[in-house]
Design goal:
The complex is a heterodimer. Chain A is α/β, with parallel strands linked by helices. Chain A is built from six helices and eleven strands. The radius of gyration of chain A is 20 Å and the shape is globular. Chain B has a six-stranded antiparallel beta barrel. A four-stranded antiparallel beta sheet of chain B has the order 8-11-9-10, covered by helices on one side. Chain B has a three-stranded mixed beta sheet with strand order 2-1-3. The chains are: A alpha/beta, B alpha+beta.
Chain lengths: 252, 492
């Protein structure tokens, strides 16, 4: 940095230097980080780079053990969003989690034919498989279903592997504990939320309450979101009469 | 007996014997040196032997399967000399093996050097053996079993002279036939050979003639080798035993480079490979490598072997090093000249590489979901290998759950307002659920040709907290039979 040609011969004022450094850093990050927008303008604006950064892992945690399905569904919904844009297949590496039921994936807008499954014997195997998949750089989305959170070492290895490719990497955790700091870029806590009925009395699209617990270079937040499987995007639910309280809690 | 000693199963002092059930009770089938010194013989009744000798005899039950396995292990070891190694069949007494060294002896410095090497290695491993090398399998067998010297080397064309003085039993005849020949005073092979053939055939059938012809080379005797002759294999010996992982990988790559052109000429690719590493002390380590699609690139194979070795870690146990490495294609399939140009999907090939990497590195296979022809939810889907082409799922109008439980779980304390309606509240997994909305019922009948079961009425239910479950009521219900409810899956 000291020999950089742009550095002036005599020291400038601290404010100028700060501004210049900021500009350089922001240019660097915007160059390096590829993102996948969630399609939800409020959340995308809230996230530091305008979406889920591709490369570092993102953790998805159920709010309660029974919400494991909601967490899995949230990950699969993001996967469906990715697959709608990209070619290729997605891999789900699972250790001990129930595997999705192919006939039910249509409700999330996901084609089961584009999913590859790996039933691993433990979290360590899941991380190694994900690492191999990142190195191979041939899949368009990766989901790891693990028990405990990601250890720091596994996180570091995944981060190194992710520098070669850029599929979104989602880790669904079974345990809803606080977790240790690791290389994950974001951590989402997902709970099922009451969905409205449509006007024919049938159940409406799935809704989840997602809380952004941890976000690198960003702030946390909490939203009530609805998954639109036809458009493959998250959106804010309409404020129905019976759900006014829930909708009102969502931060704009 | 040798198997027991090598496995450390007969550590105690004293004569040992192996007994198996024969005619009239347990009979001895194998003896150690001490037992032989006491005058015991194979085939005696165990009870009589026990009564005759004064010292306690340690008897082990015969284990034909373990003995066969031990013989096969020895055969695999013997493949270091030549690719065609046949274990002895029932006619030869199942205790031995034949190596077809035609065209292979010069690799070991000639026939005499090969015999010396073989005898020396067997002796160092404490495997008692009698070895003979002759033009025909029959002659070699007779010399090994009944000859005076071991190892015996018969120069080409001279086996007739060596066979003549041997006893007739050496011809691999049935005991009754051999005894019959002996009764007629025909003790040596030369006596039988001198007889007119038609008379011999009338008296004893064709078996003695067949064996005679085989021994003298008038009739070909194909060996039944342990493995089919492996046309795609390569072996390499090392002057200095290798033990380092990188050396093993380099050796495997060199062997594959040798095999690859042969595979290419045949238009084949390897689907499974076996790398056998012969340790200095005689143990053989084998690595089986499976591939998801035919492959013949040495780099790729070496990479997979590297991953496998990485997983094994210290499990490879090089000991004092490996002196021979042997790579064989155990399964091959047709493969196009250039895989990359097929279908134009470089991504597909990369996924195949990834599948192989994962298979070698963590020992798991990639899979995919596949629909099945059934309307019963738990049978409507299976898991197949990822190589299978993805099948389209039928459009089922009523939604199906995202996760289907392997076994449906009973819901307790179900309270329904209407007798045929959805439940109002219930208890499941030690929690109380209140139903906010319900959709249904969807009646799914069992497959009557498969099982005796009741039709189920499925409801899609949303609880007040927002969890969405798939419940069903099993069978008809009434006054005397309360409705039984089960949770079968969860919606997103």
């Amino acid at each position: 940095m000291a020999q950089a040609p742009t550095s002036p011969p005599k020291p400038a004022s601290p404010t100028d230097r700060l501004a210049r450094l900021r500009a350089e850093l922001s240019a660097e990050t915007s160059r390096a980080v590829a993102v996948m927008p969630l399609g939800h303008p409020v959340i995308d604006a809230h996230l530091p780079s305008g979406g889920l950064s591709l490369g570092p892992p993102h953790e998805i945690v159920p709010a309660e053990p029974i919400d494991a399905i909601a967490a899995l569904a949230f990950a699969l919904a993001l996967c469906a969003r990715r697959l709608a844009e990209a070619q290729g297949e997605a891999m789900i590496a699972s250790s001990g989690h129930p595997l999705p039921y192919g006939h039910g994936l249509a409700s999330l807008g996901l084609n089961p034919g584009r999913l590859l499954l790996l039933e691993a014997g433990g979290d360590g195997e899941v991380f190694r498989a994900l690492e191999a998949a990142l190195h191979a750089n041939c899949l368009s989305a990766l989901i790891g279903l693990v028990g405990e959170g990601m250890p720091l070492k596994a996180g570091r290895r995944l981060q190194l592997a992710a520098e070669t490719g850029e599929p979104p990497l989602l880790l669904v955790l079974r345990q809803a504990g606080p977790g240790l700091p690791n290389g994950a870029a974001t951590r989402w806590r997902v709970a099922a939320a009451p969905a409205g009925s449509d006007r024919f009395g049938g159940l409406h699209a799935p809704r989840w309450r997602v809380r952004l617990e941890r976000c690198r270079n960003g702030r946390g937040g909490s939203w009530l979101v609805e998954w639109d499987s036809a458009a493959n995007r998250l959106h804010l639910p309409e404020r129905l009469a019976d759900d006014a309280a829930a909708a009102g809690r969502a931060r704009p | 007996m040798t198997r027991l000693q090598r496995a450390g199963l007969a550590p105690e002092e004293g004569p040992h014997a192996v007994a198996a059930i024969g005619s009239g009770g347990l009979r001895l089938v194998a003896l150690d040196e001490q037992a032989r010194a006491l005058g015991l013989a194979v085939g005696e009744l165990l009870g009589r032997v026990r009564a005759r000798i004064g010292v306690p005899l340690r008897v082990h039950p015969a284990e034909p399967e373990a003995e066969r396995d031990a013989l096969h292990r020895l055969c695999r070891w013997a493949m270091r000399y030549a690719p065609i190694v046949a274990p002895f069949g029932p006619a030869e007494g199942c205790h031995g093996l034949a190596i077809d060294i035609a065209g292979a002896s010069h690799l070991h410095g000639g026939e005499a050097a090969l015999l010396d090497d073989l005898a020396g290695r067997l002796a160092r491993s404490r495997i008692p053996a009698r070895i003979a090398l002759a033009d025909t399998m029959g002659a070699a067998f007779a010399l090994a079993r009944s000859g005076r010297t071991s190892p015996a080397l018969v120069p080409p064309g001279e086996h007739g002279a060596h066979l003549a003085p041997l006893p007739v039993e050496a011809l691999r005849l049935d005991p009754e036939v051999a005894a019959g020949l002996r009764r007629l005073g025909l003790r040596r092979i030369a006596d039988v050979e001198a007889l007119p053939r038609s008379g011999l055939a009338r008296r004893f059938g064709l078996a003695p003639l067949l064996r005679l012809d085989q021994a003298y080379g008038r009739r070909a005797e194909p060996l039944a080798p342990l493995d089919e002759a492996r046309s795609f294999s390569a072996a390499r010996g090392f002057l200095d035993p290798i033990g380092r992982q990188s050396d093993v990988i380099a050796a495997a790559r060199a062997l594959m480079e040798e095999i690859a052109p042969r595979l290419e000429r045949a238009g084949l690719g390897a689907c499974a490979l076996r790398l056998s590493l012969h340790r200095v002390d005689g143990a053989v380590r084998t690595l089986e490598i499976g591939l998801s699609r035919p492959e013949r690139s040495p780099e790729r194979i070496a990479g997979l072997i590297a991953l496998r070795l990485e997983r094994l870690g210290a499990g490879l146990d090089a000991g004092f090093g490996f002196e021979t490495a042997d790579l064989a294609v155990t399964s091959a399939e047709p493969m196009a000249e250039k895989q990359a140009s097929l279908g134009g999907s470089g991504a597909g090939e990369r996924v195949a590489n990834l599948a192989d990497t994962i298979a070698q590195r963590i020992g798991r296979r990639l899979q995919r979901l596949a629909p099945r022809e059934s309307h019963v939810p738990e049978r409507a889907e299976g898991i197949v290998s990822w190589v299978a082409p993805p099948l389209p799922y039928p459009a089922i109008l009523p939604a199906r759950p995202l996760v289907l439980f392997a076994r449906s779980e009973a819901a307790q304390d179900v309270f329904a307002t209407a007798p045929d309606g959805p439940p109002h509240r219930f208890r499941w997994r030690a929690r109380e659920y209140r139903v906010a909305r319900a959709e249904g019922p969807e009646r799914i009948a069992p497959e009557w040709w498969r099982e005796q079961a009741e039709p189920r009425d499925y409801y899609r239910i949303e609880c007040e907290a927002g969890r969405r479950l798939w419940l069903y009521r099993d069978g008809p219900h009434g006054q005397e039979r309360p409705a039984a409810w089960f949770v079968h899956g969860m919606f997103p």
